[in-house]
Design brief:
Arc Repressor Mutant, subunit A; 216 residues; 10 helices; 2 domains; 3-stranded antiparallel beta sheet; alpha+beta
Amino acid sequence: MGRKTHTGTSDETVGKSSAESSADVAAVASLDEPTRRRIYDHVCARALPLSRDEVAEALGIPRRTTAFHLDRLAELGLLSVSFARRTGRSGPGAGRPAKLYQRSVDEVSVSLPPRHYDLAGHLLAGAVAQAQQSGEPPRQVLDQRARDFGRAMAREQSCWREQPEQREQSGPAETGALMSLLEVHGFEPRLTGSSIVLNNCPFHALPRNTPSWSAG
C-alpha cells in the first residue's frame, strides 16, 4: 500500500510529515471494518479495475453499501478511481462511463515506534551500485552517501548555515531546526540541557544484525 515524500535535493525516500502519518493510520484503521476489508481484498485480488456492480454482485453486498465503502477507500488513498464505458459503445446513447476501482499505487505503512528501513535500503542499494562502478569500498561510499543525504535534508531547514564555521556557532534557531528535522525522521529528539537525546532509532534492527555497517 504507502505514501512517501521525496526531497527536491535527493532521490532518496524521506520521512513522512505528521499529517501524512496520521492519514496512513486512518487508512489502515479503516480496514478494521469487516465489510470494507472484504471489498478491499476483493478489489486488490483482481488485475483489472472493477465497477460497483461487479464488486456488489461478487460479494453479495448491496450496491449502495458497496459504493459507500469503495468511495471511502478511495478517499483514504487505498484505492484509485478511473472511468470507462463497459458497453464497448461510444458516442450518443452509449451511456455514462462507469466508475472503476483498483488498488492504489501509493504505499501506506504504519510503524510504532517509527521505523524507516526503506530509507536504509535506498542508501545501501545506492552505495553498492556506486561502489561497483567506482571500485571504492562499499562502507566508505555508504558513509559519504549518508552524510550527503543528511546535509540535503538539513538544507531544507530555513535556518541551516552552509559554512562549517557557521554551523559550529549554532543558536536556538538552528537547534530548533535540527530538532524539527530529527522529529520528522522519527528520532523523537529531546533537549536535555545543551544536548539532544534521541528516544528512538528508526533503524532499530540494523545495528543488532549488521553493526559494522549501521553503527556510525
